[in-house]
Design brief:
Helices cover about 15% and strands about 25% of the residues. A seven-stranded mixed beta sheet has the order 4-3-10-1-5-6-9, covered by helices on one side. A three-stranded antiparallel beta sheet has the order 2-8-7, with no helix packed on it. The longest helix has 12 residues. The protein starts with a helix and ends in a 7-residue tail after the last helix.
Amino acid sequence: MSEPDVATANLAVGATSTIEPEEISEAAPAEPAVASQYWIRVHGYPSEADREIVAYNDFYDPRIGTLPGDPNENLVVGDVLIYYADGSGSIYAVATVVGPPDPPIRDDRGRLKWNVPIKREAIIRAVNKAPHAVGLEPPSGWSFLRVVRDFTYIRVPDTDGTYYVEQVKSRASSRE
């Protein structure tokens, strides 16, 4: 419409007419993306990091404390898992959550467990090449080692998460 047409337009008609889907602008704002979170995933010893099983009440955040046990309340698509083997004391793999947790199932003892779809991004298969956690110096200065015996998933600050990911990826083999 030209400017004179706008001045004489019947706005009541425009306000009550429906908008067809093909009329919606391509530039319509999308839903805001959720920022990725970084989690230290504690194991006893290195594993293949090709599947992720979550048990109830395994989540911790150093700023908040114990988090709700349901992984649907904690893990979202895009979150990064940094695998830590307590037996060797090293971080050894990185994976990304690629889908929401499957519905829970009961294990042999009646406890709930969830399968979380992941994609492994990097792995260090040789234990002697994996960075030992004691020697790491995360930017925040907070060491996740304080709580590894009590929790399986430990949320770490973004700056620490990117630091740990770089430590693994810089040592991981390009061969699978």
